[in-house]
Known about the structure:
Blueprint lengths: L1 E6 L4 H20 L6 E6 L11 E2 H9 L2 H17 L11 E2 L3 H9 L5 H13 L8 H9 L5 H9 L4 H14 L6 E4 L3 E4 L4 H8 L11
Parallel strand pairs: 1-2
Antiparallel strand pairs: 1-5, 3-4, 5-6
Amino acid sequence: MRIELFSDFVCPWCRIGQHNLFAALADWSAENGGCKPSITYRAFMLNPDTPEDGVPFELWLDSQAGDVEQAKRVTGHVTEAAAAVGLTMRFDRVKSYPNTRLAHRLLALTPSEHQTALTEALFRAYFEDGADIGRLDTLASIASSLPLDAEELIDRLGRGEGEEAVAADLQRARRIGATGVPFVIFDGKFALSGAYPKAEFAALLSRLKPGQSADS
Length: 216
């Protein structure tokens, strides 16, 4: 089974949706003799016009929610939804709403066997530690915490590598009509948009066997 996962690292629902998808995939794999799906991570930018240095998180949140009280309700709701599946969200620690293009380029350059670990580390750094994942030094620190050659990856980012892959993902998202994330495509034929619960991902996966598509 082939899976394409479009997401953005500043999207809390992407973190929740990815967590639920992986929980469902673990059960699916166990039920199918340990078969592992092929996962391709695709870049998506919720706010591509965000300045390279980012913007203050509170200002951005207020502009999206309309007022301070509504912003508190929104973050509270997301925090509760995350806690319900065992994830932590610490919006009180988030100070910047970053431009995520650099983070997406880093993921594109990361060997495929380490990409899942990197996505989870980026989500954790932003939503739990409040790290500014739009900064090169922050990304270097995150890469260094994984079995990666962080120095080489950061050097390649400095040379502009990874940009073509990110641009291609963003273009693909536009072409297929992916306007929100998480957006998950199964075997190139069946898509789900949104942070579905584990049970709903599992219901779809139950229709998929290794080598088959959802409409088989």
